Model the fold of this input.
Amino acid sequence: KFQNRKAYVVRDPHLIHCLIPGVIQQVLVRPGQKVRKGEAVFILEAMKMQNDILSPFDAKVKAVKVQPGKMVTKGELLAELVPSQPE
Done:
């Protein structure tokens, strides 16, 4: 069992993945927009609750991979971020 285990892979912090399956209710950002740490990027409805998906750090949105109304699965890529440079 130990030999056949799945190898641990460090997640890229610049990618926002879905943690639970649900439906994207709102996309609050667009490519090129700057976001602050803790700012809501998406609203995900899962189990009749609305969950805010937040930016993990100050960044610029490189790409948005989902649209409102899309059903997403656990681990699906939602957006790509580029860290913002200190001014």
Q: What stands out?
A: DSSP finds no helices and eight strands in the chain. Residues 70 and 81 are 20 Å apart (CA to CA). The mean pLDDT is 93.
